[in-house]
Amino acid sequence: MKIHVKKMLILSFLLIAVLFTNLNIVYATDNDTDAPEIASRAAILIDNETNKVLYDKNANERMFPASTTKIMTAILVLENCDLNETVTASYDALMSIPEGYVTAEIQGEEQFTVEQLLEMLLVHSANDAANVLAEYVGGSIESFVSMMNTKVNELGLTNTHFTNTYGLQEDNHYTTAYDLAKIMQYCIQNDDFRKIAGSVSCSIPATNQSGVRSYTSTNQLILPDSPNYYSYVTVGKTGFTTEAGRCLVSCAYRNDIELTCVVLGGTLSDDSTSSRFTDSVSLYEYGFNHFSLKNIANPGDIITSIEVSNATPSTKSLDLAFVDSIHALVNNSDLETNYIPDIQLNANISAPIAEGDVLGKAIYTIDGISYEADIVATHNVENSQLLQFVLQIGGIFIALLVTFEIFFSNRKKKNA
């Protein structure tokens, strides 16, 4: 009877383990009771300064990126071209766009500047602009796609692979919410990318083939007249295919905090509202309302004191101070927490020491993120004159002993 009970307990435990293994576990922070529920299949919210992940739902699950692919296309163009360079569209670049995909109706042999093509790419999400730019930069579309995957490797991303320049639905064209966030964090270091990807609209002047073109951003979060407008969003790129769902990668800035948000696999609600917008706003509100920058240290703050053994009595007691400030992103519930640093001093600290000399560093580890700053001497530390005198006398005494030893050794040899 006892054996049967034991078997039943083991089977029950295994069943519970299997059930929990198949759950989609969502975490935000150690305290995620206020984390939003979102419709998108995968998402991430990450702080751009510390890389602290504030929210994660299937962030490392492979997903189709759709037109969010274009942020990688854009940054490679910006890194390899001047905005005012003239590009001539080839028929080959245009003919490969499948029917039903968004275009700017670029014509063969039509000429644009790089900047104009980037505006059509990021504001209007024109797929033909992506291929025209790719061919211009890479020599061929295939070569440019190879450049995209090389950049992926340089960024250390292991779950992203591109097969085209604009998000054509293909099985081997994939990424993750986490990888897209890292790509966006890289892209926004470029001021031209920030400007174009944050444009509400654009107007393309008449060309040698067409009249003026005007476009409004597909990212409703930056459109003031949109019901989805969110004033803190600075840049963004949408994406959609049937298989990828509704996608958005964006950044928002508020209260000195900049966050990157990625939502993939979004849906439409009954009233045709896209979850990529509502989910993004929910995640931004969660991040901005539950996390704050905490001032951990200020320049000049004393962190510790030491005794310098070979220093003069008046200077041997030395305070060490921060040279820079430290700000940490913490949950609002931890704003009053007094964090204790790990102080790492240089080896063999001894006089003389000049005011401002770096003598070590202080490291704060908060929620797995390390924040550190150098610590420096707050005043000059002079050598002890008595110690110097003793050392000099000792040196002289040793020199005399050696001299006498040599002298008497030579006399003994002569007498022998």
Shape: elongated
- Helix coverage percent: 25-40%
Count of individual beta strands:
17
Widest sheet, order of strands: 1-3-2-10-9-8
* Terminal-residue CA separation: 103 Å
Share of residues in strands: 15-25%
The biggest beta sheet is recorded as: 6 strands, antiparallel
The H-and-E topology, N to C, reads as HEEEHEHEHHHHHEEEEEHEEEEEEEH
SS class: alpha+beta
Poorly predicted regions are 1-27
**Arithmetic mean pLDDT:** 89
Total DSSP helices: 10
The radius of gyration is 32 Å
Please supply descriptive tags for the structure shown above:
416 residues, alpha+beta, six-stranded antiparallel sheet, five-stranded antiparallel sheet, 10 helices, 17 strands, disordered N terminus
Please give a structural write-up:
With 416 residues, the protein is α+β, with helices and mostly antiparallel strands. 33% of the residues lie in helices and 25% in strands. It has ten helices and 17 strands. The chain has helices at 2-21, 70-80, 91-95, 114-122, 127-138, 141-154, 177-187, 191-197, 275-290, 385-415, and strands spanning 26-27, 42-47, 53-57, 86-88, 111-113, 201-204, 213-216, 233-241, 245-254, 257-266, 291-297, 302-307, 317-322, 326-331, 342-345, 358-366, 369-377. A six-stranded antiparallel sheet has the order 1-3-2-10-9-8, with helices on both faces. A five-stranded antiparallel sheet has the order 12-13-17-16-15, with no helix packed on it. A hairpin with a 2-residue loop joins strand 16 and strand 17 (369-377). The protein is elongated, with a radius of gyration of 32 Å. The N and C termini lie far apart (103 Å).
